[in-house]
Specification:
It is a single chain. It contains four helices and three strands; from the N terminus they run βαβαβαα. With 119 residues, the protein is α/β, with parallel strands linked by helices. It has a three-stranded parallel β-sheet with strand order 2-1-3, sandwiched between helices. Helix 1 links the parallel strand 1 and strand 2. It is globular.
Length: 119
């Protein structure tokens, strides 16, 4: 498949306002991205389910998610979702653990990647 270039003028990044510091953090990230020639802005959401729905509905282009929210987005998007990055402070903090009903084949659980936050 040939690589596609993204031509949108502003990339919308959805984030959850889990603490007041989020605004300061994302203003800094936005400034950094602009300095690199990447035009982005962020949109605040009050919770991860709302952010997942915004990603699925196309209201945001990128979602800064938890591992669970990533899996929910991936499922709702039929697998058309990928991890782009993970904070170094989060590496090693998450393990691959899956629980499923007995009716779910083990081979299905092994195929689920749980390796990042940004979906």
């Amino acid at each position: 498949m040939p690589e596609q270039r993204y031509t949108k003028s502003v990339v919308r990044i959805g984030i959850v306002a889990y603490a007041p510091k989020v605004v300061t953090i994302w203003e800094g990230i936005k400034d950094y991205l602009h300095g690199q020639g990447f035009n982005a802005d962020w949109i605040l959401y009050s919770n991860y389910p709302a952010l997942v729905e915004a990603l699925v509905d196309g209201q945001v282009d990128i979602a800064w998610n938890t591992p669970l929210a990533y899996l929910q987005a991936r499922e709702k998007l039929g697998g058309q979702c990928q991890v782009l990055a993970m904070r170094d402070t989060d590496e090693g903090a998450w393990r691959r653990v899956a629980r499923a009903r007995a009716q779910v084949p083990r081979s299905a659980a092994r195929r689920v990647p749980v390796s990042g936050w940004l979906a």
